[in-house]
């Protein structure tokens, strides 16, 4: 029979004693309950759990004898569940003394054993969390999908009337006059550049966007003309973009 480590916390918390003294334990819970009742100084089912002596299985098997109601297989399974529980692993800390079957101190837990117990505890808790998450996702998947609610076409009132008060008419919206056309800044008309003025070194105006900019002709290769702006930038433009300075 395989026992899940993630389920050991519940296993130890709720032991079930056999119904009679002669009845054989039917499951791991009953075996653990038997061990707690027979060896209370060694086994516990609450926060008083203590780490067990190495080789405790042989001691218990010898104490029970061949006529025991508990088989060695059941005893191994019960000890595996007991020592894998979260409380037991949490109690296995460096410097803590293990106990024998009579509750007497045995060997002291070293750093390596404590680290191993802490690692097993973290892994067990992670597996339990993953199982809970998987169950929740499975439950959500089984829930029926609700149809989206169509938005209401009714408009909500702008203001809530106070009980007993008179309704107040909303002030009419101010009429915004139509925007007047923007009056363009009056600028002098640009004079077309005569072909005779297309010479290297002549000052001209080059129209970039809406604003003409002063420039100096650097090269003429009609219909393209290379000019240098006042900022020092050299650009190539068309002849029809140049005007008299």
From TrEMBL:
A Pfam family found in this protein is ProQ_C
Skewed-composition ranges (Basic and acidic residues): 125-141
Q: Which key words are in the record?
A: Chaperone, Cytoplasm, RNA-binding
Record's subcellular location: Cytoplasm
**UniProt-listed InterPro entries:** ProQ (IPR023529), ProQ/FinO (IPR016103), ProQ/FinO_sf (IPR036442), ProQ_C (IPR035236)
User: Domain named ProQ/FinO: which ranges?
Assistant: 23-137
User: Residue ranges of region Disordered?
Assistant: 125-166
| SMART domains found in the cross-reference section | ProQ
Give the function comment from the record. Answer: RNA chaperone with significant RNA binding, RNA strand exchange and RNA duplexing activities.
Q: Which family is this protein grouped under?
A: Belongs to the ProQ family.
Q: What is this protein called in UniProt?
A: RNA chaperone ProQ
């Amino acid at each position: 029979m395989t026992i899940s480590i993630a389920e050991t916390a519940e296993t130890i918390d709720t032991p079930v004693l056999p119904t009679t003294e002669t009845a054989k334990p039917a499951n791991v819970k009953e075996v653990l309950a038997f061990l707690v009742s027979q060896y209370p100084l060694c086994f516990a089912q609450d926060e008083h759990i203590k780490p067990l002596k190495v080789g405790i299985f042989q001691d218990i098997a010898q104490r029970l004898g061949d006529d025991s109601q508990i088989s060695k297989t059941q005893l191994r399974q019960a000890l595996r569940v007991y020592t894998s529980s979260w409380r037991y692993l949490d109690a296995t800390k460096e410097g803590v003394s293990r106990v024998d079957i009579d509750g007497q101190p045995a060997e002291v837990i070293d750093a390596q054993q404590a680290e191993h117990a802490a690692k097993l505890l973290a892994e067990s808790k992670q597996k339990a969390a993953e199982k809970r998450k998987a169950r929740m996702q499975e439950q959500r998947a089984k829930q029926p999908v609700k149809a989206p609610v169509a938005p209401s076409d009714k408009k909500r009132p702008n203001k809530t009337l106070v009980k007993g008060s008179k309704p107040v008419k909303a002030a009419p919206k101010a009429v915004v006059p139509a925007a007047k056309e923007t009056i363009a800044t009056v600028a002098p008309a640009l004079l077309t550049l005569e072909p005779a003025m297309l010479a290297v070194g002549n000052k001209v105006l080059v129209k970039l966007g809406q604003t003409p900019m002063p420039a100096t002709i650097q090269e003429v290769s009609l219909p393209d003309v290379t000019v240098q702006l006042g900022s020092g930038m050299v650009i190539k433009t068309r002849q029809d973009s140049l005007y008299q300075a």
